Amino acid sequence: MSKIKTIILTVLAFSAGFMFTGCNVQYEDTTAERYVNGHAKSASTNAGIKNIIVYIKNTTDSNIYTDVRLTDSNGYFEFPSVPNGSYELTLTDIDGSNNGGEFQNKTTAAAINNCYYECGDILMDLKSNN
């Protein structure tokens, strides 16, 4: 019976932690999985954009963590095992109009503190023809 109470209290403790965090899930355990993900979308059509390079770097010390991903056919990306810290993500269109248009670069920020960070939809504008 004691083990059941311990499990219930543990679940309640984690549930309370989920409700008051700045990110979607936060753990006291510093070995918890931390990742950054998002969805590159066209600002004009709201469609996912494939083949966008997503570059992530720690804004305090780029030696801590830097990585690059390519969005999938629906515009999604994910960086697994991201250490705690402040990050900048830069999205760059590398294939010209082959993915639905030529898009302007986009930069956004993410902060990791023993949690995962969902960037959500990152809207990218088409480059102007000027």
Helices, strands, pairings?
Elements: H1 2-19, E1 36-42, E2 52-58, E3 66-70, E4 76-79, E5 85-93, E6 106-112, E7 117-124
Parallel strand pairs: 1-7
Antiparallel strand pairs: 1-4, 2-3, 2-5, 5-6
Structure description:
With 130 residues, the chain is mostly beta strands. The protein has a single domain, classed as Immunoglobulin-like (Sandwich), CATH 2.60.40. Strands 3-2-5-6 form a 4-stranded antiparallel β-sheet, with no helix packed on it. A hairpin with a 7-residue loop joins β2 and β3. The longest helix has 18 residues. The radius of gyration is 18 Å and the shape is elongated.
DSSP strand content: 35-45%
Secondary structure tally, helices? 1
Q: What is the helix content?
A: 10-25%
Quaternary state reads single chain
Count of structural domains: 1
Largest sheet: 4 strands, antiparallel
SS class: mainly beta
Number of strands: 7
Q: Do you know the CATH topology?
A: Immunoglobulin-like
CATH class: Mainly Beta
Which CATH architecture would you pick? Sandwich
Sheet with most strands: strand arrangement: 3-2-5-6
Q: Could you give the order of the helices and strands?
A: HEEEEEEE
Mean pLDDT: 74
Low-confidence stretches: 1-29
Please name the fourth-level CATH homologous superfamily: Immunoglobulins
Rg over C-alpha atoms, rounded to the nearest angstrom: 18 Å
| Alpha-carbon distance between the two ends | 72 Å
> How would you sum up the global shape?
elongated
